[in-house]
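Trying the structure run again after the queue cleared.
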Amino acid sequence: MKEIINAILDYQLDWLTLALVACGGMALALRWLRGFPDVERVNRLPWGLLCGLLALAWVAAELAEKMEVVQVRSFMQGLAPTFGYEFERHGHSKLSLDTPPDDPLYLYLIDTQIGWLERNPLVADIYTFRKRPDGKVVLMVDSETDYNHDGKYEGDREQRTPIGEVYEGLAEPLERAFRGEPSFEEVPYTDFWGTWVSALEPLHAPDGSLEGVLGVDFDARHWLREMIITRGAVLGAFGFFAGALIAATVVLSLARAEAKRQARLAEKERRHLAEVQEAKRRIEEQAAELSNQSLELLRARDEAQAATRAKSEFLASMSHEIRTPMNAIIGMTGLLLDTPLAPEQKDYAETVRGSADALLSLINEILDFSKIEAGKMAFEPISFDLRATLEEIADLLRPKALERGIEFSFRFAPEIPTRYIGDPGRIRQILLNLAGNAIKFTETGHVLVEVDYLNADTESPLLRFQVEDTGIGIEEDKIPLLFEQFTQADASTTRRFGGTGLGLAISKRLVELMGGEIGVRSRPGDGSTFWFTLPLTADGSPPPPPLSTADLRGVRILVVDDLPVNRRILAEQLGYWGMRCDLAASGIEALDWVKRANEERNPYTVCLLDYSMPDMDGETLGRRILELKGSVSPRLILLTSSSNKGDGRRFEEAGFWGFLLKPCRTDDLRAVLEGVLGASAEAPPPSIITRHTVQESRVAAKKLAEEGLESKRKLRVLLAEDNVVNQKVGVRMLEKIGCRVDVAANGKEAVEMAERFPYDLIFMDCQMPEMDGYKASQTIRAKQQTGHRVPIVAMTANAMQGDREKCLAAGMDDYVSKPVSLETLQATLNRWVSPASEAHASGSGI
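Done. Tokens:
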């Protein structure tokens, strides 16, 4: 193809073709006219006009080609200085022929190259040269390049070129570049990697000396295609005029013939002349109509391209603009529910939160569908635990199933591995859509989610996911409509069960984009079975251990967000957990806070940064915070309203420890904070902590808790709590751990029961009637002057600065704030109940 385009440009075959066709058309037209007896011999004027038109076409084509060459060359050549400056700024001169392939600077420059290639699709390759002492030109930095755009780097041609490989091409342009002259080679040349046009830019060391050359390759096919398209457009226009000239010659010749006939037969000639004139008018109208249609097509093309760009920009802005108020609604409702409310007020608040969650789900579906339609949906394969994903889905949907009086369960085939490489968020989204629909349309019976191998003998085994229900079923003629957007099997279904009809359409597109298939089997009254397949690569690496956790009380944290409502929500949440919180409305203000804290030798432990801010985004702010000189670099967590493929890795490379998508759940935020604070600076987490990391950590912690149940089977615990609901919750959780629990309704009863029974541990509420927890603890300690000292742990809703110290001063040993989780209770028992006390409990017979 390249050779054909080169031949067309070199020998001007396009203009020659136009000339031959035009001249041939004129000759045929004149020969055809000779068949009419009354047509006179055509003079030389049409031939002269045609030759002039062809000469003008040649000049116009040459000028258009040169203008296009100047424009395209200016664009392409302008990229090389930009890339060259970045390489000089990042220290390319520090590389040498002995630089190892795992050198951090070399790898950073490789990643920079890859980023440029991703952001500049017209650029085929970026590389740097250097001369050896013997005069040989060698390659220095040349990353993997996906020339065929199939998402894989295969073969010697697409693999990374090692440092020092000799390069033989582009001798003269390279010599000019090594003499310090930027050059552009517009004549396509071919080397081992392909056929290119290239821009070459000298690279200088910090002292100003020439140390290398940067090259930017552009696919020669694109270059040649632009030239041929430009020439074709110009010559096509002149071809149209040539055709009009031939037509006019024919029409005028026939008109003369008709005029001669008119002299013999006046009436007949007049009628014939009128017909010719009408024919001429129609030809002119058609020519004008064709010209208008061409303009309309060009305008429609421009409008379509503008609409596509506007749609992409709309998606990015709407993702942020919609999530920002939703974050405020969900966050403020959560804070409201944490305050004392009347039953009616609590019901109203829970209704608002449920509606907000439903609205957020609907917004996510619409944005996802828009991303799919615009071709912007991205997937990020990571290592994940498929069984943990199913357990999370079961935990989310099982309460809804119980409300409807149906059984919800899942089956994970025992012979298949649990860890895979894939996008767990999208798999979770598909299963939630299918299983949620199954629960919605099932009134009696069960809903079953199954995962099994469909084909286990390949490198990427095919897994089959199936959601079976005993619901209302679907008629056969309605099944083809199920996966259409905004469509349900029956209009009455929407009125009865609600829904937009987007969930199944999104699920189908997601499955297909991940290389799988989706389908359904159903009969009215017999339920439905939705299934889909996915090719997933098994991951043999061990599952990550549970995240280490840390106490949040007293930790100093800086919150940076340009929206006041977001700062207020985060401040109240963090303050409720006992953290010392400062607020900043911009990146500049945040830097001042961090500098002041470092100067006062009271640095921030954590910085919680919003990504989208007007003056400085969160990523840039994080990098600048880490560049500040201080005693301790704070641990950075980023909150953002939208994310794209590769964001997690990019933020991790920028120095962030945690990353969450807004609006984030309160328990996810706390888990990320605890995980970030629980890791040490010497042994940070193996990867950035996200919601997915938190989920897998919870699964691992749950397994560890279950494994530790046996060691606590015979512990006897006293729970001092005056609230009946809190009594039930505490008893159930402690019994689930394996403890034997007694309950005291106030501090006085707790003192009396502590005298009668040798408890292994006492959980003490602080605010109780008759005698509060502080007084009860002091009384118990006064009476336990000798012998066994029972640990007393405060379990209270008070979580402000100084509450912990007040509890310890009253004789308590530890402090946990409400609401408490099963993992917190388990960790407290592990910390305070020693093996000796367990043996004591076992041997006491109580």
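Residues 489-498, 709-713, 835-846 have pLDDT under 50 and may be disordered. Worth checking whether this holds up in the mutant runs.
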